[in-house]
């Protein structure tokens, strides 16, 4: 069994965050917990923050030719 799945089966909450993020307080207090997955955004404006997530794949760029972006 995979370690991540085992952790969730034990009832733990998992938070995945960027490495350049600093928590000055308990981040779980700010989460609504009304869904299975909540995600952060690097949105610079409120409208951009609530955009939809979309993807792109450019096979001519090789293995690193894909990415995700926020679509408003």
UniProtKB/TrEMBL annotation:
The secretion signal range is none
Q: Highest lineage ranks of the organism?
A: Eukaryota, Viridiplantae, Chlorophyta, Pyramimonadophyceae, Pyramimonadales
Q: What are the BP-aspect GO terms?
A: root hair cell development
* Species: Cymbomonas tetramitiformis
Q: Which Pfam families match?
A: Nucleotid_trans (PF03407)
Q: What is this protein called?
A: Nucleotide-diphospho-sugar transferase domain-containing protein
Please list the residue ranges annotated as the Nucleotide-diphospho-sugar transferase domain.
8-47
List the Gene Ontology MF annotations in alphabetical order. glycosyltransferase activity
Question: Which InterPro entries does the entry mention?
Answer: Nucl-diP-sugar_transferase (IPR005069), RRA1/2/3 (IPR044290)
